[in-house]
Structures are given as structure tokens and as C-alpha cells.
Amino acid sequence: MSIEKVVGVGAGAAGFDPAFERGGTGDDSQLPTTDMVLNIGPQHPATHGVLRLRLTLDGERIAGCEPIVGYMHRGAEKLFEVRDYRQIIVLANRHDWLSAFANELGVVLAVERMMGLEVPVRAVWLRTLLAELNRVLNHLMFLGSYPLELGAITPVFYAFRERETIQGVLEELSGGRMHYMFNRVGGLKEDLPHGWLGRTADASAAVRKRLPDIENLILGNEIFRARTVGIGKLSPELVAQYGVSGPIARASGVDADLRRDEPYLAYGDLQDVLRVVTRPDGDCFARFWVLLEQVKVSLDLVDACIDKLASMPAGPVNVRLPKILKVPEGQTYAWTESPLGINGYYLVSRGDKTPWRLKLRSASFNNISALPALLPGTMIPDMIAILGSMFFVVGDIDK
Hints:
The protein has helices at about 20, 75-80, 85-90, 100-115, 120-150, 155-175, 195-220, 220-230, 235-240, 245-250, 260, 285-310, 365-370, 370-375, 380-390, 395-399, and strands at about 5-10, 35-40, 50-60, 60-70, 185, 185-190, 330-340, 340-350, 355-360. The chain has about 400 residues and is α+β, with helices and mostly antiparallel strands. Strand 1 (about 5-10), helix 1 and strand 2 form a beta-alpha-beta unit. The protein is globular and about 80 Å long.
């Protein structure tokens, strides 16, 4: 007897064992069977949003995986082509809503490179500081939400406590909690409020002091370790083949970080502070551990930027530009080490006030692209642990 079922978990359907329904023992060794297709998503709590995974199952073991993306596609790259360079920033900071400042940064760096603009040194250091604060916010979200997906509820409350501490100083500076719109072509929107550096230093110290609460709560938990250690091993070869980057790649032993390897902003002057965190295991636990360690590194960089800015004399944080901004004809490629990995911005200009083409290379898309090679052979419950440890934002996949 041949049985073939297509089950849509995202739509609320539930699978069953045909042998048990007939009163059997569940031993399918006497039954010829065919593969079952299981749809995880597009609306499913395991998928971080409207991502759909089409799984081919052999019993409870995954035989194949096809990520189906595009449910949140908004045509951002085409919208870039009909917006001037100032308007693009408001669109660019939304595809990865957990890394808004980093998204803005890549766009303005590409435009400034094309125009040959030299940004004031005070703005360079302040951009570096804000980029690292944004990185801390991004990582804290995943540090809280990942254990939640594995059944641990408490860590998310600790993570959000630390996020609110950082959000407080960023909101004071920019007026925004998620979409800061603080970058401008040629610098930043405005200078710091009086006493802001001191309050940011206090926020950094508070987060650093309380971070061991999250670490002690999760890393030694035997259930968390059972669900993550040795699960979802991603080899350096797969990292290279699929262009995986950021903390996921470094958790597989790939020692690469644009902040060190191709310094931009003020990272060239912070090499003695910047520590590239790697781990050779390549499993879910390693990816979580690297993310946690990177928060500590970012806080070190935040403190170093605060010290530098505090010793720096007052000065401009932007460059005066014409009302209508036109970029010279040509092309350039700028890339940054965003919180989730490498973001690339390929800008082509024909001398107009809008780009002829602005192609975005997002980290999340490449990270998810490795799933068809990573998931086969694993069990369905492990799929939840693996998917959550790939640290992606659906809007960053679809754009």
C-alpha cells in the first residue's frame, strides 16, 4: 500500500502516522511508503515571519529542503531607482529592521565614495559608535528569541531588558527606536545632545555587567545544550559555496571580518580593540556562543569610541551639500560587516539625482541559501533549532 500526503503546517494542518491510524505499531518496515512533503510556513512560528520551507520527509527525517522566499518582496531595489539619494536612506534601513543603522550606512558610504566626499572625523567615529550599538541590539534580539524557539521563555526577558537600556540612548539621539534615519550623505543628521556620551557609557557598563545573567542562564542549561551541541553542523566548505558570512561563518571557523580585513569608518584605528570571535564546531551551539561573544566585543568598541569622542574637540558632523544632490557618472561597490553578515551595495550612476541601479547584497539571503545542503539527514525537531540559529530577518531575504 502506497501512502502520499502533503501536509501544510503553516495552514494549520496536522500530520499523522498511517500505521497508528490503522491500529498498527508504527513500524513501517512492512509497508512500502513514499516521501511526504511538509510545508513549514509561510505563517509558522518557527520561520521568523513569512518564510516557507518545503520539506521532503522520509519518516521524521528530512530528505530535502526547498526554501521558498518572496512573500515579503517589496521591490526595494526598483524603488531606489525613482528616489533621490536622500530618500533612499529611509527605504534602505527597513529591509533588515533589526540593523537599520547598518543598512543606512552602506548606502551613504557608496554615495560618498562616488562623490569623493570626505566625511568629518567626528562623524566617522560617531558612525562607528552607533554601528556597534546597533550590532548589540541586533544580537540581543536573537540571544533572547533563539532560546524561546527551543522552549526557554525566561531569557527573552533578560535580553529585552538590555535592549531597552541601549534603545534609550539611541532614541534620545535619533528620535527613533528602530528606523533611526540618522545617517546623511556626508555625515550625520546632527551632533550629540549634551551629556549623551556619559549616558551611553553608563548604558554600556550596565549591559556588560548584566550580560552574564543571560550567559549563565543558557549556556550551562542541559536542555539547551542537548538541542544545540552537534546539531546542524555547517562546514567551512559550505560557508564558502553559499557565501554565508557574519557570525554564522565565524562559528564554522571561518576567520573573516570586514572590520578587520578591509577596515572602513574608524575600525582601522581600533584593531587593538577589535577581536574576531571564531569557533570551529559549526553547530547551533557554536553560532549562539559566537553571537554572545560578539556582544562583548561590540561593547569594547563602544567604550573605545566613547573615549575617543570625549577627547575630541567640538566640530562638524556633516558636509554642506547642494539642495539637489547629483552623483557623478560611474559605478562603485561598497560592503560592510553588518550584524548578520556582509551587506554589499552596487551603485551605478548616470549623473542624475537618482541612481540608475542600486543592487543590494543582503546577508540573510545567503545564510538561508545554505539550508538545502544543511538540513537533509536531520530530524524535524532539529530543523527548528537549526533554522533559528541561522540568524536571519525575512525582510532582508526578500527586500
